[in-house]
Structures
1.
Amino acid sequence: MAERWRAGKARGGERRGGEYLWRLIFPPRCLTCAVLLPAGAEAPLCRSCLSSFIPAGPLCPRCGELLPPAAPCSCIPESAPLRGLFALSWYEGAWRQMLHRFKFRGKRSLARPLGSWLGRLIREETCWEPAFVIPVPLHRRRLRERGYDQAQLLARFAATALGVPLRPLLARIRPTAAQSSLSHHQRQENVRGVFACRRAALPGKRALLVDDIYSTGATMQEAAAVLQKQGLVVFGAVAAFTQRPS
Ligand SMILES: [Zn+2]
Ligand SMILES: [Zn+2]
């Protein structure tokens, strides 16, 4: 698996050169405490933060149980739009604070280490092998307020790590109220019909849908349903899953 990762990185001197320059100007730092990382660090976390990091992995998008790579959870019906979900960690503690900085405090530079790590682990720990990556889009009004689309950035770096193209196939066709202020049922209602496909997808292809946080999953399920109608087989990837199952 590590070989495949190296093979992906070695593709094209231009990308390698760009990565080298980037690392020279912005040496990699720990995602959660920002200390400088030693050269060749496996994960974007320092030793101390890594020791308290609680990894997730492939899990059930419905009940949150961690799953073996190729096994769907028994609580997911065959026809469910999201065939699987991969989360880097849980939305709690230092990881939650880091994602808060990424999403609301303008720390867009976190997208590169986060997205690259997400893509690499999906490559190593799942057998999904998506043909391309699709971001869950922001509405243009929200994008204007924030200045960047955090899911789009994550998706971009995940796609590079996976060695596949980024395909922004979805558009958010109306703005929605912030999901965090709503109940589970209201969230489902809030996102109903908000996504449209920009162009015809390629039926039967496997796609990786990327968002930052999976809370109730209403947004990602709605986006996956639109892509499923186009005939795509959809897997999801997020930086954090709301809650560890008790
Ligand atoms: Zn650290
Ligand atoms: Zn389940």
Note: The CA atoms of residues 194 and 224 lie 12 Å apart.
2.
Amino acid sequence: MSQMAKRSEPTIQRVSVRQVRPLREQVLRPGEPPERSVYPGDDETDTFHAAALLDGRIVGSATVIRQSPAHEAIADSWRLRGVTTLPEVRGTGCGVLLLRAVTGYVASQGCRYMWMFANPPAVGFYLKLGFQIMDGVQNVVPVGAPHPLMWRLITPADVEQPLGGPSPLA
Ligand SMILES: CC(C)(COP(=O)(O)OP(=O)(O)OC[C@H]1O[C@@H](n2cnc3c(N)ncnc32)[C@H](O)[C@@H]1OP(=O)(O)O)[C@@H](O)C(=O)NCCC(=O)NCCS
């Protein structure tokens, strides 16, 4: 039998905002002032910051904040922000694990819709995970193409098992 090195699997933990900001700064807003990685609602007690940990290192993050868009059709929503994985782990399932964790959390909060303004290169990723593009609603950003509003219906079936104990990084 061949001896193959066993690859570590990422785990998802609820962490503090302090733990996800460095990744936001590094991957989502390189070269921009750190305050651009601070989102309104980051410090609310029901805001959920998820981190993907691999060998004790944060390699991905996602945040959900109770915040509805101006768009009436999806009132009672939670906003997804700061979704990112390090380039070296992309394509290994971290993004899906993060999305599953935040989706499970908002479902447990009785949320009806989750939404975000999607970075255009990531639209295909969100489509795979059941998000839809809302026609004609975009966020115009200072640099790059406008970000379409994407949304997903949340149902009780999205509730997951609770995440494991306190973060080892807390
Ligand atoms: C978008 C992002 C978070 C995806 O993370 P990831 O760790 O690569 O995701 P996964 O490995 O879990 O990929 C899950 C599936 O989605 C696919 N996928 C990933 N990125 C994709 C993309 N941009 N377009 C289409 N499909 C994509 C993968 O191929 C995989 O498909 P498979 O299950 O058929 O193999 C990551 O590419 C990223 O950080 N991008 C830069 C930051 C960014 O744009 N974030 C979004 C802000 S709105």
Note: Confidence is low (pLDDT under 50) at residues 161-170.
